[in-house]
Structure formats: structure tokens, C-alpha cells
Design goal:
- By secondary structure, this protein is of the alpha/beta class.
- The chain folds into 2 domains: 183 residues, 3-Layer(aba) Sandwich (Rossmann fold), CATH 3.40.50.12780; 154 residues, Rossmann fold.
- The strands form 4 sheets. Strands 5-4-8-9-10-11-12-18-17 form a 9-stranded mixed sheet, sandwiched between helices.
- Helix 1 packs across helix 2 and helix 2 crosses helix 3.
- The longest helix has 22 residues.
- The termini are far apart.
- About 1% of the residues have low confidence.
Length: 367
């Protein structure tokens, strides 16, 4: 399939724009046809919108593909394969406690791996080294972010350690691992923003400075509402981490995803969120989600993700954002667009949700 052609590309983030657009269009059209034919609920929904695969004739027609409201996964089991073919059930919960269940078969998980590997190759440039996860091990938390990093990171890095156990950040163990000369380099960190702030708080109490490497990355994963709903500007946050770990601010990146899509989006060194070349992003009118907003205008973020084989990942999120680098443009970092603005927020009245929220409820202090 066309999506597998993109995943096999040696440098997909620097493809020619015309090649990217052609492969992306064909991949998403193939995906729409697959889910239309194999997911009865989605076919009924598409028919109610009077949209069939025959209607999708060119790139601009991608905006016609019917979008599923993100909360639909709390109400229905949506599958485009047999249930016995499901490999993983990804779960995400919000403040109401209702659980979204997203069914992923082996092919969907394999494509997730390939996509994240391509994203990390683009960002860190070099496989190997060490990653310290500011989240608990998978046996302590079933948040999809936790499960994903536990599956993927050990295959990408030489060594992975968890610095949160039994609901507490183990500062002493973190210091020991990061300062151990035997720890593989470069040394990277990954976790939600609130966990980094807890770490900084703990390190200040010890008086110990941790200098990482010039090619180390500190990557955040969701959760920009922290500590009793007090938020922190991302620029200030990056300066704090840069000072604490002695790494360039351009190596402090934010990532964005959700359980309902099968791709990760991450900042470039100019802090623009790069959409992977196979993933289509569309900004929709909150008052009429069938209507696309003009480029540069804010609206609800929608995704068409052809990596998902076992369920239709044509998702209307309840996040607000805007496109700052267009589909046919090249970012100042040299990689192809499109890109989202770094600031993404929840729509007014939408339920707080996500893996970082789940982790914040779990983590209650510092060891």
C-alpha cells in the first residue's frame, strides 16, 4: 500500500513536496476505501454524509472524508478487521472516567513502530544511547503513552530506565543512572511537563547538577496544564530545562499525539510541530466541523491517519490549533510542511483527557 511506501522512504521529512502530496493522497484514499468496505459503522456514517470513496478524486477532496468525533471511541467499538486479529487495545480516559478503546491489530502496531522510528531518526539523527522515562513502567500504568514508549524505546535506544515507580519520582536513582560513566550516550529524557518540573524541584533540593550531552534531547509528551491547573509558558519551561541539564534550548522538544491516531507529531528546532508526511491535518470550524478554516486561522484539529489498518483513524479532536507552515511549504528548519503552531489547547467546554492527565493523578511526590 502507498502508506508503506512512505514509511519505507529513506528520508520522508525531506521528500519533494509533489512526491509527498501524491503518496499521501493515494495512501489516505486507499485507507478510506479499506475502512468504508470493512467497518460497517463507519460506512453507515459516511453514507449518511453522502460520501463514498468514488468522491475522493484529488488532494483537495481529502477534506470530504467524514471525520469521527474523538469521543466516539468511548461509545462504540470501531473495527475494520476481525476482533480476533486485535493485538493491543489502547485505552485513554478523561476527567469523567469514561474510557476510549482503540483496537490495534499487528499491522497497525507495526506501522506505529515504523512511523515513530522515522520521526526519531529525523529528530535525534542517531539511534542508540540512553533514554530516561519520566513515567512509570507499563505494569504500573496502562496509559497508551506509557505502553507505547515501553514497546518502542527499548528497540531504538541502547538502554532505557524508568524514573517513576510506585507513584514517586526516584531522584536518587535518576542521578545515579545519569551520572554513571557506564550509561550509554547521548542521554535523553522523555516525559510529561509536570514530571520535569517535579524533577527540577527534587534536583534543587539535592544541590546536584546534571550535565547531559550536547546532542541530548529532553522531549515532553502532552499535559501542558500542571499543578492545580497553573500553566507555564513553553519558552520559560525550555529555559529552565536548558539551565538544569546544560543542553541547548533547541533540543527541548514537545511531542503531540492522542490514543485515537497512530502517529506522533514533534517539534523541530524552531518549535513548529511537524506533521509526518503520511498524516493529513485539517483545521475545522468549531461551529461547523465540515468546513475547513483558512490557513493560519485557529480551529479544531482534525487528522486523517492511514497508518491505522484496524480502525478508521479519521478523527476530529477537541483540540484547538492552527497551521503555521502550509502543505506546500518548507519550514525554516529545512523539512517539508505542514506544521502546527506549538501552542495547542483544549476547546472550551471539552473534557480534560490524555495520558499526561492520567500520569499526573498517579504521581504524588518525589522519593
Amino acid at each position: 500500500m502507498r502508506v508503506d511506501e512512505i514509511l519505507a522512504h529513506p528520508d520522508p521529512y525531506h521528500m519533494k513536496i509533489e512526491e509527498k502530496n501524491d503518496l499521501k493522497f493515494r495512501a489516505i484514499k486507499e485507507s478510506f476505501l479499506h475502512h468504508y468496505e470493512n467497518c460497517a459503522r463507519y460506512r453507515e456514517y459516511s453514507e449518511s454524509k453522502k460520501i463514498t470513496p468514488e468522491e475522493i478524486k484529488n488532494f483537495d477532496d481529502l477534506s470530504k472524508i467524514p471525520l469521527l468525533p474523538i469521543n466516539i471511541f468511548k461509545k462504540y467499538d470501531l473495527l475494520s478487521v476481525k476482533k480476533e486479529d486485535i493485538h493491543i487495545v489502547a485505552k485513554s480516559s478523561g476527567t469523567t472516567g469514561n474510557i476510549s478503546k482503540v483496537f490495534k491489530d499487528k499491522l497497525t502496531v507495526e506501522r506505529l513502530f515504523k512511523g515513530v522510528f522515522k520521526m526519531m531518526d529525523w529528530m535525534v539523527k542517531k539511534r542508540g544511547g540512553f533514554v530516561g522515562a519520566l513515567n512509570p513502567p507499563p505494569e504500573e500504568n496502562d496509559a497508551w503513552m506509557v505502553q507505547t514508549v515501553s514497546l518502542i524505546f527499548p528497540q531504538y535506544f541502547d538502554k532505557m530506565e524508568y524514573f517513576i515507580k510506585q507513584g514517586k519520582i526516584d531522584i536518587e536513582y535518576m542521578i545515579k543512572r545519569l551520572l554513571n560513566p557506564a550509561t550509554p550516550k547521548p542521554r535523553h529524557l522523555f516525559g510529561p511537563p509536570f514530571a520535569y518540573l517535579k524533577v527540577i524541584e527534587g534536583l534543587k533540593k539535592t544541590g546536584i547538577n546534571i550535565e547531559l550531552d550536547n546532542d541530548s534531547f529532553a522531549v515532553t509528551g502532552g499535559g501542558w496544564k500542571m499543578f492545580a491547573d497553573k500553566s507555564i509558558p513553553k519558552g520559560i519551561f525550555r529555559e529552565m530545562l536548558s539551565k538544569e541539564f546544560s543542553i541547548p534550548t533547541e533540543n527541548i522538544r514537545d511531542s503531540y499525539s492522542c490514543t485515537e491516531i497512530n502517529s506522533w507529531i514533534v517539534d523541530c528546532k524552531h518549535f513548529k510541530k511537524h506533521i509526518p508526511p503520511w498524516l493529513h491535518v485539517s483545521i475545522r470550524n468549531p461551529e461547523n466541523p465540515d468546513e475547513e478554516m483558512e490557513e493560519g486561522e485557529e480551529g479544531l484539529i482534525a487528522f486523517l491517519d492511514p497508518l491505522a489498518h484496524s480502525y478508521p483513524a479519521f478523527i476530529l479532536t477537541d483540540d484547538i490549533g492552527k497551521i503555521v507552515v502550509g502543505e506546500n511549504e518548507v519550514c525554516e528548519c529545512g523539512s517539508i510542511g505542514p506544521c502546527l503552531h506549538e501552542d495547542i489547547r483544549r476547546a472550551k467546554g471539552a473534557e480534560a483527557r490524555g495520558c499526561a492527565l492520567k500520569l499526573q493523578k498517579l504521581v504524588n511526590g518525589i522519593k
